[in-house]
Amino acid sequence: MDLNSIKSFVKDYVKKNGLIEVRYVKVREVEGVKGQSMVLIGIYLDKPMKFDALMGLLNGLTALIGAGERWIYAPHGKEIRLMIAQSTAPSTYRGRG
Known about the structure:
Elements: H1 3-16, E1 22-31, E2 37-45, H2 51-65, E3 70-73, E4 79-85
Antiparallel strand pairs: 1-2, 2-4, 3-4
């Protein structure tokens, strides 16, 4: 999986949908338990993001990655983290990203 293409997709989606509340995007790949590949996408928000915009972003990322399960996590005050499994098998990811 090309992480730069994922980051470009997120940035283009943000610009196209007028989401000026996004300050930065971080993308990395980690290995979950039993070798399952996970893509972690950190998005730092300056202002609240509409839920419909977030769902559109998740659906687009799912189509791009060919993902199975998706999670959202908010470890910091203004950063949300999207975790997307790259296989259709149930994830066993339990680590910190």
